């Protein structure tokens, strides 16, 4: 991809984002969504975060899936999920996940 292509892609994405947000701000309360649409929009943050995180965890080197104990991203994600679900404490979950990732990356799977 050339530099100009990348620049035009960024400009296009920025324009689309601006137009969507500006439309919502301009129309404000005049637009009513159906209850099912409101429910569906509630799942958008979870699905976007999942779409970003899962490829990084499963295939950290942009190749095939690395589903082994030597993948520190996968080990840290699984350990973090366990701590997050059991404690429900965001700061403890983040701290544990970072500590597990760096420890695993340095000592177990260098």
From TrEMBL:
Xref: InterPro entries: Brnchd-chn_aa_trnsp_AzlD
Domain of life: Bacteria
Keyword Transmembrane helix listed: yes
Membrane-crossing segments per the record: 6-28, 40-58, 78-104
One Pfam family here: AzlD
Entry keyword set: Membrane, Transmembrane, Transmembrane helix
Name of protein: Branched-chain amino acid transport protein AzlD
